[in-house]
Write a structure and sequence with these properties.
By secondary structure, this protein is α+β, with helices and mostly antiparallel strands. It is 31% helix and 16% strand. Pfam families: DUF3759.
């Protein structure tokens, strides 16, 4: 990718020397993959989450960014909103200039879908990689492979030492009904809605589940429970990114709200999709 303009295709190219490789360097920030030279992000062209769609660079969106957010696991770079879709070298070739597309994940003959992330820069830069959906859910037909690439920490996931009290082993997040009421206030009144961080996180989780329902209906496909949980967790985290900016939250507040929203989204999804 030598272009630095909106809608330029992402292609494969031999690795360049350190003094001329800015257009080959990327950083991860809240699921966005940002190019060092252009400051544009990886984008699924047209917003269509379907197989055989080109990957381009585009201006970062703060809302409706489902086609710009990615995760990395087991060597796959995948769409957070639909983990079945991954970055793929079109045609499986290695010719310079071959375009990158979104394609259904393959469990075999998949070398053109597997990527190794190589950190560059100082320690602080190298650790700006994380942000992936919770990796706790088994994926049908997919066996966990030993990692042959660096294992980066999944910042923002897992209960911290100061996690809010739980009852009977369950995290205390708003009920589905409470989240529905909070959702109306948060998404209609914005900053005028004076609600707790927990209720706002619940509203984000509710929005994520409803958004996933709409996505599933558009696609017309049934998804496994594991994929649904991953999808709603990723969408909930995306909503928190937007709401955290609107409410001027600190980093700690944002990370805690992200965890709460993801856990709530998984619970609400169980009710919404009846599993």
């Amino acid at each position: 990718m030598g272009e630095t303009t909106d809608d330029s295709n992402i292609i494969i190219w031999p690795q360049k020397p350190d003094d001329d490789n800015d257009n080959q360097l990327w950083r991860a920030e809240d699921g966005f993959l940002i190019n060092k030279r252009s400051q544009l992000v990886m984008d699924i062209r047209g917003g269509d989450l379907k197989s055989d769609t080109y990957i381009v660079q585009y201006t970062r969106k703060m809302t409706m960014a489902h086609n710009q957010r990615f995760g990395y696991r087991d060597g796959y770079i995948y769409c957070l909103a639909d983990p079945r879709l991954v970055l793929d070298i079109r045609g499986g070739g290695s010719k310079e200039g071959t375009k990158i597309i979104l394609y259904k994940r393959k469990e075999s003959d998949n070398q053109n879908q597997l990527w190794t992330i190589i950190p560059v820069g100082g320690p602080n830069e190298a650790h700006q990689i994380p942000y992936y959906p919770p990796p706790d859910y088994p994926q049908p037909g997919h066996q966990q492979q030993p990692q042959s690439y660096p294992a980066y920490p999944s910042t923002g996931y897992g209960p911290p030492d100061n996690h809010p009290p739980s009852y009977g082993g369950q995290v205390a997040y708003p009920s589905y009904e409470e989240a529905s009421g909070a959702h109306h206030q948060v998404y209609n009144e914005g900053r005028k809605a004076h609600l707790s961080h927990q209720l706002i996180a619940g509203a984000a989780a509710y929005e994520a589940v409803k958004a996933y329902r709409r996505h599933q209906e558009r696609q017309g496909e049934e998804m496994s429970h594991g994929f649904i949980k991953q999808g709603v967790a990723a969408l909930a985290a995306a909503e928190i990114v937007k709401l955290a900016e609107e409410h001027n939250w600190s980093r700690d507040q944002k990370e805690k709200a992200t965890r709460d929203a993801q856990q709530a989204a998984e619970k609400y999804a169980s009710r919404e999709f009846q599993f």
